[in-house]
Amino acid sequence: MGIGERLLTLDYVSTTIRANTPDSTIRKPVLPERIRNFAGAADKVGYWCSKLSLHQVASTLAVEF
Length: 65
Known about the structure:
Blueprint: E1 8-11, E2 16-19, H1 33-36, H2 39-50, H3 54-61
Antiparallel strand pairs: 1-2
């Protein structure tokens, strides 16, 4: 998957994998104004979820994995 997305390069001769540098021609997408307001909340939820187990997150958010 990483090789297909050009994130990794596989050297078949030496059997090594290395990370590629980001492609400078690809720009980050510009977020619409209505979505920018969610960035702070998403960071808070991400931090909170990082302290919990996957089962606790799924149970709290009422989702299944």
